[in-house]
Amino acid sequence: MIFFCMQDGVRWPSYNFPNTPDSIALDAYLRHKSKFLEAAINRLAEQAVFNHPHGDCLYMASEKTAPGSRIAIIGAGVGGVTFAIGLQKRLGFHDFTIFEQGTDVGGTWRDNTYPGCCSDVPTHWYSLSSEPNPYWSRTHVPQSEIQAYWQSLARKYGLYTRTSFRTCVSSAAWDDERSVWVIELEDLQTGARRTEEAEILVSAVGLLGEPRYPTKLEGRDRFKGELLHSARWNHGIDLRDKRVAVIGNGCSGVQLVPEIVKESGVSVVNFCRTPSWLIHTPRGEFKEWHKWIFAHIPMAMRAYRAWIMLQHEMMWPLFSSGQSKNRAKVEETIKGFIRSVAPESYHDQLMPNYPLACKRLVVDTGYLAALHRPNLDLNWDGIAEITEDGIRTQKGENITFDIIIFSTGYVADTYPVPVRGKNGRTIQQYFDSQGGPTAYRSVGIPGFPNFYMLGGPNSNTSIGSVIFFEECQAEYILQLCAPVLSRSVRSFTITQSACDAYNADIQARISRAVYPQCNSWYRAAEGTGKNFSIFPGPLTRFWWIMRSPIWDDYEVQGAEKWKPRSKLARVVKCVGLGVALACTALVWLNPTQGGRIWST
């Protein structure tokens, strides 16, 4: 364990070497296979990590005039829980508060409870590398099991007592003179308002929060039947013997439709605008002996996780615009799968006319087979408006419905909290000035000291685990928090030039991929503007970028005697990483054939 000296002389733990949140789990491998090597590396790195001539306080602490923890976290979803765990495990730090509007942790997995809701990413990869679970029931588990996982982590790390539930962050503003965030809060139960302060503000509001309704579709307020969004499912609704419209055929719509058509007497029309690339992935239950192996055989579960990640990483070349021939072969394979399962009458309508992976890939969970049911129809005519008793199509047909369900995604290109930086500008105003959400390495925004984002701009993936991204971000942010918490630095602010250079590279890489070749929610301006969502590269590249800060990219306040990691520490880390990679390759990356993502 590496330590650094705090103001009060207490030796607080910093990052275990090597610092790897990824599924390859090099840190775990070193601990298990080569404790001697790890100890030797740590002894060298300990001398180089924080090159302070003194262990005492290098500046006066921030002056807080209101109550509050040193770190405030907005949101108790996946990102907020991940970061809070990291604070405790990596830094041994507990003086933080999570502010959550809902009544429980879990975020999108708390809110999305529609029938059929499940992970479309293999579950062993859709979980924290630091908190593996050998007892997952299936390769792709339902929402309830994922939510239970995050609840169990919150209980394990005492997050329920550190979270202020039913609390809305009304606004936050940086006080540059005192180097604190002034946070205005509202109790959603009583309406009471209060002010708290924090030295560091971490945003974990995520991308999948506010349900999105088509902005140009009129008449929602006129409909006299039941109207709801899949992201806010009404469990009191009775679908039996009802005429139901489902608008949308993306990930949630494809999961929802096969389940609701099973209701007695229900008749469903799925309104579709653009066909999705519907892929088949092997799915099934884990048997008890699988779980026993994961729980008791050293490294078995991590090796399985690494195998899953490797399969997905090998797909990245298909996302490059220069791989049109190889992508065309895969596209034909997927189209063959669609033809083999769907009714022949829908074949032409179900074939995408845009490149594979330009939009989010959609995993078929029984949707194509459900199209054979007599109580399910697809409608591709387009919707002109919602009427009092149903939907009028763009061809002029009036169709009567009892219930209309929107499965149209989320508002992803805005920031929901009015957070103001040191120049008085809000995050949303900064996003607008950049043509859409923009950040440095997805976590930092110029003009916003000690403010960091989890699930920020360009930290999403077309296929893969977003949990991986959030772990990488959390580890990166922790490295920026450590000097502030040790009172060696007052604040870090990313420079505009560094942010501009990083995003110029991101957008250049996106322009060479398939993403500009279609409209999607990945892009601002109703799907036609800048791609603010996708990271243009394999996940291992994101991990590499996020492994440690480039300190020269930051404006540092209150750090007259502070020095970042020395060159020796970086050399030691690179040498150790190379050794660990070589060891890992010998164990895991053998030449045997893995499974296939797509099969027919």
Principal-axis shape equals: globular
Count of beta strands: 23
CATH superfamily of the largest domain: FAD/NAD(P)-binding domain
What portion of residues belong to β-strands?
Answer: 15-25%
Sheet with the most strands, sense and barrel status: 5 strands, parallel
Q: What is the CATH architecture assignment of the largest domain?
A: 3-Layer(bba) Sandwich
Mean pLDDT: 86
Q: What strand line-up does the widest sheet have?
A: 5-4-3-9-21
CATH class of the largest domain, please? Answer: Alpha Beta
Fraction in helix = 25-40%
CATH topology of the largest domain: FAD/NAD(P)-binding domain
Terminus-to-terminus distance: 48 Å
Provide the domain count: 2
Rounded to the nearest angstrom, the radius of gyration is 25 Å
* Low-confidence parts: 1-61, 583-600
Walk me through this protein's architecture.
With 600 residues, this protein is α/β, with parallel strands linked by helices. The longest helix is centred in the last third of the chain and has 21 residues, at 567-587. 46% of the residues are buried. The two termini are 48 Å apart. The chain has 17 helices and 23 strands. It folds into two domains: 66-210 and 412-587, FAD/NAD(P)-binding domain (3-Layer(bba) Sandwich), CATH 3.50.50; 220-406, FAD/NAD(P)-binding domain. It has helices at 26-33, 35-46, 78-91, 108-111, 143-156, 251-260, 288-296, 300-313, 324-341, 347-350, 367-370, 427-433, 466-485, 496-511, 524-527, 539-545, 567-587; strands at residues 3-5, 11-13, 71-74, 96-99, 163-164, 167-175, 180-187, 193-198, 200-203, 226-229, 243-247, 267-271, 278-279, 362-363, 376-379, 383-386, 390-393, 398-400, 403-406, 419-420, 451-453, 491-494, 554-557.
